[in-house]
Each structure stands twice: as C-alpha cells, then as structure tokens.
Amino acid sequence: MAEEDLALIHALQIAPRVSWAEAARVLGSSPTALAARWERLRAAGLAWLTVHSGEQSRDVVAFVDLRVEPSCRTEAIERIARDPRAASVEETADGRDLVLTVIVPDYDSLAAFTLDDLPTTPGVRAVNTHVATKVHRQGADWRLDALDPDQQAALREAARHAKSPAGGRIPDSYWPVVERLAHDGRQNAAEIARALGRDPATVRRQVARLLATDALAFRCEVAGLRTRWPIVCTWFAQVPMTELDHTVRSLSTLPELRLLVSTAGQSNLMFLLWARSAGDLMRIERLVNEKLPSLRLSESVLTLRTRKRMGWLLDRHGRATGEVVLPHSLRPR
C-alpha cells in the first residue's frame, strides 16, 4: 500500500467523516484526488468505514472460542459470520479453530447464543466463552503511523464538534438512514436521500441529529495484510487486581495494541496486537515481561485469517467484500 494511501487512512481513523476539503488542507492534496483515492481503496476492499452503536457500554461483550470439525469449517464460518450476534470472526491456530467477538444486549442473549445456538451449529464440537468485564482499548483507538503530530492534531480539531445528549433510542424513521451509513459511513445526506427516495431536508435533519449525538460511532478499518502490521496475535494473562490499573496504562502505550479487555475467569486480561513479523511478537512479549513482572502470560493465540470484522464480511485475504451484516445494536429494537 502506498504511503499516500496510509496517510489517508490514518486521517480517516482520526476523523472518519472529515470533509475532503479539510483533509486536503492537512494532507497537502486536493479534495478531488482524496475522494478518488478513497473510492479506489474502498472498491478494492482495502479500507472501509464501519458504524456501530455509540452506547456500547450497555452491551455485553464476550470472546468465544470454537472447536470445529475440519470438514464443516467452511459451512460453520458462513453460518456464524451471517449471525448479527457475532461481530467478528477469526480463524486461528494454537488449539482453537475460530474466535468470535460477540456483542449482545444482555446476558440472556449471550446464554442463548453460546449455550443453545452455537453448539447446534453443524461441525461445532466445543464452545468456550470469555466474558468481558471492561473494555479498556478497542480497535477504534488503534492508529497507523503515517502522519506527523501536527497533522494528527489538525485532524483531531477538525473532528471535534459539539455533542448533545444522546436523546434515548433512535427513532424508527431513522433506521433506513442508519443502514445506509452502516454500508458507507462517508455518505452525505444528499446521497442517502437519493438512495432512499426520501425528502432531502428530512434526511439532512436525521443525519445531523445522529452525528450530533453519541447514537453512532464511526471507525476507519484497513485490511491488515496490506499494512506494516500483518501479524495478529492475542494474549491471555493473569494480573493481580492491585496491579491492574498500572498494567492497563503500561500496555496502552504499545503502538501495536488493538484491543485490551478485562475478562472474568482464570485469565483476567486479554489483549490483541498487530505486529510487523513473527520476530516482532517475541520482541513485544519480552518487552511486556520486562515492564510488567506481575503479569503472567498464560496463552497466546495467532490469528490466521479474519473473516468478519465489526459486521463487515471479509474475503480470505482480509479485504472487505462490501457485504455488511448489521449488528444487533444497529437494528430496530
């Protein structure tokens, strides 16, 4: 991927809906060139915008390991990836076949999915669930390293706008607009109105309200294999509760960190990193051991392929197919 592509993606990680005019001023380009570059990246499945609920603290998040019969692996992936409860689906090594990121509204829903539905999926032999008690860092916090500090500050300023209270549940009439944004998070009100055949003024009002509250959160994603960090690894660890805050602060300084979660169970901390190489994983593990002697790494899991990420179906090379399975939080309730 070209440096100009990485710079644009980094810009949209910071300010997903920044105008092309503002982005052009920061990146030293033209609005037309940036729009064309983004469309090329998006059409190739190399970068895309995801949309999820801005009130995810109300959801139950869990990470579910599956053992699957090899002959049923493809069928199981297809079936599970189309379930809105499985936000992400990864094919892994190290004693697991699949790892799911599950986001559901409550524990009853989690129990139904993990105890009733997954075990009856053809080929699934075992289900093991790690429930998140707190999400410290998530993929939306991870950044490329393509922009200098001044450019990053300018984009953060461009992304800053006044927020009003979330205003409760999303009105039923807004859901078609939400669905359009879920498929293309940079669509403007005029484009959405044309696609839906709706009154432009009404759609403009609805989009403005959605953006001015915490109802929706936008995230710029990138096909990991095309970045400088193609290796994905998850560690499970045990940390004394007295050291948890210090551990979280220390791990959060790692530029490779994509996810950091406290979990219930024997391992009470889980973190996921994107690394440059297999050798880089050893460097990171050694660094973590040196900086955090109280942290005991109990297991590491290597991701071989990601087949779904935050609702977007991916191909075997981790590129977005353009097909989105709306998560429960972006469905009418």
UniProtKB/TrEMBL annotation:
GO CC terms of this entry: cytosol
SUPFAM superfamilies according to UniProt: Dimeric alpha+beta barrel, Winged helix' DNA-binding domain
InterPro entries xref list: AsnC-type_HTH_dom, Dimeric_a/b-barrel, Tscrpt_reg_AsnC/Lrp_C, WH-like_DNA-bd_sf, WH_DNA-bd_sf
Record-linked Pfam families: AsnC_trans_reg (PF01037), HTH_AsnC-type (PF13404)
Ranges for domain Transcription regulator AsnC/Lrp ligand binding: 65-134
Gene Ontology molecular-function annotations: sequence-specific DNA binding
A single BP term in Gene Ontology: response to amino acid
HTH asnC-type domain ranges (all copies): 5-42
Protein name: Lrp/AsnC family transcriptional regulator
